[in-house]
Amino acid sequence: MHHVARAPDAVRRLLERLRSRPAFILGLSLGGLLIAIAITGLAGLAINQNVADITARALEHDVNLEDEGDDLRAAVLDLRHYHRDLVFLGPNSPQALLNFSSAYMRMHEQIDDYAEIERSPGVLSAEELETSAETYFETFEPAIGLYYVDRVAFDVASDQGLAQLEELDEAAQAIDRLGEDQAEASLANVDRANQKARFILLGVLGGLVLVGVGLVWSAFRVVTQIRELYEAQQASAAKLADAVRAKTDFIADASHELRTPLTVLRGNAEAGLVIESACGHREILEEIVAESVRMTRLVADLLFLARSDAESLPLRIEPVEAEPFAVDLAERAGVLVRQHGHALGTALAGHGTIHVDATRIEQAVMILVDNAAKYSLPNSKVSLNTSTWNGQFVFEVVDSGAGMLPDELAPIFERFYRVDKVRSRRLGGAGLGLSIAKTIVDAHGGRIAVESQVDEGTKMRIQIPLARNTGVASSGPGAKRRIPLAPGPVGHR
Questions:
Q1: Angle of helix 94-115 versus helix 64-89 axis, rounded to 10
Q2: Which stretches of the chain drop beneath a pLDDT of 50?
Q3: What is the DSSP letter of 42?
Q4: Which residue from 51, 420, 24 is spatially nearest to 233, judged by alpha carbons?
Q5: CATH of region 318-465
Q6: Helix (H, G, I), strand (E, B) or coil at 225
Q7: pLDDT single digits (tens) 209-267
Q8: Local structure of 61: helix, strand or coil
Q9: What SS3 class is residue 224?
Q10: What is the pLDDT of residue 23?
């Protein structure tokens, strides 16, 4: 009892001694706080780096693998669709041959894109897919000319080709499934890393609470700020996980739920039109085909912009001789302009060498040509001109439409912006074309601009830097490949 009675006296004397030395207590508390802050910072950096590494691996390989599998399958289905067009309609239509060749080249491009991803076990390599694609082409393409001469030989080659396309489709599905599984596993790793981070940071926070017991009001403010930083870090980690998940869901859902069903829907409707040419539902089937084409283009545009936002735009830069490139581009533009009932005028004076992704630059220019043709007055002229100026190769597209007011020019390259909304809807425009063109030009270090006068028309200009050594010859993986004349995908103003 005597010892128990003396214990409160000893504690009281200790507290009085400590109260008499506030500077020591404050210094000790601040020192402990600084140590805790250092531990918190190091732990946060280590955790953030770990989460960033896991997320980067998921984005760089797993999600891209799934995306490329979807794109490859869509390309195979497109090729199969145009293959069947040749079977049902015959090769007497130049457009049917053109569509078939374009679809074959798009499939090659998807295989090339897939080749840039690190090889994954359990699926076919890009070289094996390339071999299968070339085997298909060598089997079916020579037999097209036998359609009217030896139909039996044509049908045999066609059946063999369709079987080979089915194998390519199964390979693309296997790549897609592997990408889904790996992406799901990577996101699970991100979740586990975040859970571990929460446990570590909660332990550090407990230490801060113990240190903060002896702090005066100034030290308490520091603890409060640390807690706010912790909450901000948790919010940032949650936003990062949500962003990764949202991007993955968008690409997967858009690819699975839109592109493939639209392709199947279009193919079935066109097959119905061919098989039952005099059916009572012809107008409905034609409307289904038209709407599926429009929706497929819109989905492709949205996916293009989504990829350009999520990462740098993938480009296949090669030295290109500008003069022959412009001549070929003018031929494609002429076909497009004539489809709208206009005439194409050209003044191709540019020369030199440009380092570009020729397919993407063609897409950007064709977007401008398509817009000019759609918004020109009936039976008028659209001009495509090229020139060389101040170290730049210049593409210029001029129309004779109604023109635009000055305040309409500033937002013209924004997404979903349409000057004439009523007419744009009637023509099928979604307001994405010029945004896509600007994205492509910016990725090449170029510049896109517009000049317009009301009742006088609009002039769109693309400037691409010329190569310093204009004598460099074109080279690259696609130098020996046959590239059919086919206009690239276009957008709408």
A1: 160
A2: 1-5, 20-23, 248, 252, 256, 421-426, 471-492
A3: H
A4: 51
A5: 3.30.565.10
A6: helix
A7: 666 665 555 555 656 767 787 787 888 778 876 765 565 456 545 554 665 566 666 67
A8: helix
A9: helix
A10: 47
**What is the number of other CB atoms lying within 10 angstroms of the CB of residue 414?**
11
Query: Residue 341: which region, alpha, beta or left (left: phi > 0; alpha: psi -120 to 50)?
Result: left
Asked whether the beta carbons of 366 and 336 are under 8 A apart, the reply is yes
Polymer length of the chain? 493
CB 394 within 8 A of CB 388: yes
pTM above 0.85, yes or no: no
Say if CB 320 and CB 354 are below 8 A apart.
yes
| String of DSSP letters for 415-455 | TT--SSHHHHHHHT--S-HHHHHHHHHHHTT-EEEEEEETT
Place of tokens 């030290």: 219
Residue pair 317/355 in contact by the 8 Å Cβ criterion: yes
Query: SS3 helix, strand, coil % of the chain, rounded to 5?
Result: 70, 10, 20
**pLDDT (tens digit per residue) in 471-489:** 433 333 333 333 232 333 3
Name the strands in the sheet holding 457-465, side by side, starting at the edge strand that comes first in the sequence: 343-348, 381-389, 392-398, 457-465, 447-453
CB atoms within 10 A of CB 277: 8
Specify the amino acid at residue 65: L
Phi and psi at residue 410, to the nearest 5°? -60, -45
74 close to 461: Cβ distance less than 8 angstroms? no
Say if CB 46 and CB 196 are below 8 A apart: no
Alpha-carbon distance 235 to 108, whole Å? 43
Sign of CA dihedral 23, 26, 29, 35: negative
Task: Give the pLDDT of residue 483.
Answer: 29
List of residues 6+ apart from 90 with CB closer than 8 A: 96, 147, 148
Please choose, from the candidates 401, 402, 399, 327, the residue with its C-alpha nearest in 3D space to the C-alpha of residue 368. 399
pLDDT at 1: 46
Buried (b) or exposed (e) across 301-315, using 16+ Cβ within 10 A? bbbbbebbebeebee
Contact between residue 84 and residue 137 where contact means Cβ atoms under 8 Å apart: no
> Using CA atoms, how far apart are residues 108 and 487, in angstroms rounded to an integer?
17
Domain edges within the chain? 47-310, 318-465
Query: Which of 192, 223, 214 minimizes the C-alpha distance to 231?
Result: 223
Return the structure tokens found at 74: 């869509």
Output the CA torsion 350→355→359→362 (10° steps). -30
DSSP reduced 3-state for 56: helix
Contact 430, 492 (CB under 8 A): yes
